[in-house]
Amino acid sequence: MNALTSLSLAQARDALRKREFSATELVEAYLAAVEQARALNAFVLETPDRAHAMAEKSDARLARGEGGPLEGLPLAIKDLFCTEGVRTTASSRILENFVPAYESTVTANLWRDGAVLLGKTSNDEFAMGSSNETSCFGPVISPWRRRGSAQGLVPGGSSGGSAAAVAAGLCAGSTGTDTGGSIRQPASFCGIVGLKPTYGRCSRWGTVAFASSLDQAGPFARTVRDCAILLRSMAGNDPKDTTCVDLPVPDYEAAVGASVKGKRIGIPKEYRVPGMAAELETLWERGAQWLKDAGAETVEISLPMTKYALPAYYIVAPAEASSNLARYDGVRYGLRVAGSDITDMYERTRAAGFGKEVRRRVMIGTYVLSAGYYDAYYLHAQKVRTLIKRDFERCFADGIDAVLTPTTPSAAFAIGEKGSVDPVEMYLNDIFTVTVNMAGLPGISVPGGLDAQGLPLGLQLIGRPFDEEMLFALGAVIEKAAGRFTPQRWW
Which one of 25, 39, 402, 485 has the fewest beta carbons within 10 angstroms of its own beta carbon? Predict the structure, then answer.
C-alpha cells in the first residue's frame, strides 16, 4: 500500500481539496494496487479507462473550486448495482453479458457527488451466500491470513469482493448490499467498517433484487468517518422506489466524535449462544466497557424472538428470491439455452445459468409459497418477523438508544471449510445479523480486535430506525479504543 492508497477516504478528500495531489494521481495509485492484487479475485471487472476519464473531470472541477463531497475519490461497486454501459452480472452466468442502459440510484448519487469508478467487485451469486464462494467468477480470497498459515480464507459474503477491496487498500471505499448480514459479516471478517442502513434509507432502484423487503444498500470503508461520508451521498429519497423514505439526509459525518454520555446500550442475553468462543465473549465485554468509559450505560435486555429469526429469515428470503428470480427465463435478456419448446428452454436456461445455492433457495422459496404450504411456512414466518420487530420496539421504548452484540459467531474460515456438506452450517454465520434485516433497523460492524490466530473480529451496533447518527457516534468510540487493523500483505 503506497502513501496515497494508505490514506483514509476523509484524508484523501481533504488532500484533494488542498491540491496536494490530483485525482488522476490518486486513481493511478489505486489502479496499480488493483492490478497487483488480482490474486484476491476481488474485482470481476476493472474500468481503468472510465476511471481516468472521471478523474480528469474531477481535476477540472477541483481546479475551479467546484468539487462535490466525493470529488475524485476512487470507489469499487458491488456487481449487484446496475452501472450504465458497464457490465453488471450479479456474479451469475445467467447475466454474464448484461450491460445495463441505466444507472442505479445509489451509484448515480455517488457519481453526482464526484466519485470515480474503479470497477465492479465480486459477490455471492445474486447475493446468496455468506462467504463469496458462490460467485460464477470463483471465490474471493481474503487479504487476511491466519498467523503462520498460507491457507486462503473467505472474506465473508455476499459483499465479499467489496470488503476485500477496502481491506487490501484497493479503493477508498466501496458499496455493498445487506439482506441478512451481507455488509456487516464481511466487514467483520475483513477488519473494516460496514453499515447496513435502515430499510428505505437508500434507494433499491437499479440494484439487482434478492429479497425485496430485506435488501438494503450500504457502504464499506476503513473508518467510521469514511462510512458516514459515503452514506450521506448514497442516501436520499427516490421517486422510482416506493420503499425509499422521503426524509432529510443528515450530515452523518458531524455525528462522528459526538458525545455518547448518558446513552443507554442494550446487551441482549439471547445473543449469548451455546458454544460461543470465549474470546468473542471477552471482546463483547470489552466493547461494553469502552462505551461505559465514554459515559454510556449498559443494560441487559431481552429479545426473546431472536432464536426464531434465522429459520424465519430462511423462509422469507428464499420466498422473495423465488419471485424475483422468475424474471430470468432466457426470453428478454441474459443467458438463453435453446430447447425443444418454451418450457424446455426455461428449464435449460435456468439450470445452466443459476448456481447450486441459487437453485436451492429458489426451490425452497417456491415450496413455501406453494398451495398448502403458504399458511404453514411463509405466513408464520411473517408473523415471527413482526414479533422480532416488536422486541426491538419495546426495548427502544424503554429508553435503549442502541444494542451491542458481536457481528459474527467466529472469525473468517477457510475456503471450502463450511457449507459443502450441510448448507445450514453456512447459514448459521448470519445468526447475529438477520434480526436487523427482519426488523428493518440500521446496524454497523466496527473492528473490535483480533482473535488468537490474528484474525479480525467485529462488534455490531443496532440502532433505532433512521438513527444512523447514533451508530456513527457509538462506533467511533469503539474504533478509537480498539484501533485500526490491517492485514499483512501476502499477495
Answer: 39
Q: Is 13 left (phi over 0), alpha (psi -120 to 50) or beta?
A: alpha
Whole-number Cα distances in Å, 471 to 263, 415, 477: 11, 32, 10
Query: Among this protein's residues, is 240 annotated catalytic?
Result: no
Instruction: Grade residue 245 by pLDDT with cuts at 50, 70 and 90.
Output: very high
CATH of the domain at 117: 3.90.1300.10
Taking residue 425's Cβ as centre, other Cβ atoms within 10 Å add up to 13
Under the banding of pLDDT at 50, 70 and 90, the label for residue 421 is low
Q: Is 165 exposed, middle or buried (0-12, 13-18, 19+ CB in 10 A)?
A: buried
> Residue 427: pLDDT above 80?
no
Asked whether residue 424 carries a pLDDT value surpassing 80, the answer given is: no
Cα 425 to chain centroid distance, Å, stands at: 21
Q: Has residue 335 been placed in a domain?
A: no
Q: Work out how many domains the chain is built from and give that number.
A: 1
Q: Does any domain span residue 141?
A: yes
Query: Among residues 78, 120, 263, 418, which one is catalytic?
Result: 78
Domain span holding position 147: 9-262+406-482
* 22, three cell numbers: 490530483
Is residue 418 part of the annotated active site? The answer reads no
User: From the candidates 92, 104, 135, 158, which is the catalytic residue?
Assistant: 158
Distance CA 230, CA 174 (A): 9
Distance CA 78, CA 68 (A): 22
In a domain, 46, yes or no: yes
* Domain-located, residue 187: yes
174 is catalytic: no
Residues 6+ apart with CB under 8 A from 392: 303, 403, 435, 439, 441, 462
